[in-house]
Amino acid sequence: MHLARSLYWGLLDLLYPPYCKSCGRRLDPFEKVICGSCWFTLQPSNLGNWRDAVTYHENIDCALTGWFMSDLLEKIIYGLKYHEQRALGGEIGGRLADMFKGVIRELNPDVMVPVPLYPAKGRERSFNQSDLIGRTVAGHLQIPYEPRLVKRVRNTKSQTELSIDDRRENMAGAFAVGDLAPHRRFLIVDDVLTSGATLSECAKALRRKGASFVAVLTAGTPPVHFTKNEKAGG
């Protein structure tokens, strides 16, 4: 079976060679969707805990992000979310795990959870991009992973076009959590953190059920959060 699958994918690559969705270069056998050269152009945040730069952070103890948002990172995340380029979820997760393995081990989370989709949206999309990223990070770092521990109980609007205040109102009461035992220290995974309204509301739901520590990990954040002499937020 394994040999047949390898032959199938080898023939497919021969007939339809994979090219980088960013620069168009033919991908090496170990590359998926985006070539290594393009990944290298992303700007790592190197921020450590940037919680205090997040507009809504009162329920969050630690915020980690991999890269500053750019046209390329937006393209990568858009391809993952809307063009079913699922391999990008594993690629992002693997790179985040390598980037933050020391920090995350020091945080010592009991369990990792993804920001959930509303059930109807999950069925429509057939996967959750945060789940794909989270599973990979958890697998690399050997941390327990519970994708169904947090549920989205309100079908919220997209946050993209909303103001800062409207984002918070839009997410109010959007999540529900069951029994957390025996977990008390959590790491929530999402693709992007801007205002923090979504992740803070998710963290609030966990704290109401007894969570003592909640950290968040995302692939990207807008660089405007950290522009010198500019008010943090987004």
What can be said about this structure in brief?
By secondary structure, this protein is α/β, with parallel strands linked by helices. It is built from eight helices and six strands, in the order ααβααβααβαββαβ. Helix 4 packs across helix 6.
Outline the structure in words.
With about 230 residues, the chain is of the alpha/beta class. The protein contains 8 helices and 6 strands. Strands 1-6-5-2 form a 4-stranded parallel β-sheet. A two-stranded antiparallel sheet has the order 3-4. Helix 8 (about 195-210) links the parallel strand 5 and strand 6. Helix 4 packs across helix 6. The longest helix is centred in the middle third of the chain and has 21 residues, at about 85-105.
Descriptive key words:
disordered C terminus, 4-stranded parallel sheet, 8 helices, 6 strands, two-stranded antiparallel ribbon, alpha/beta, globular, 234 residues
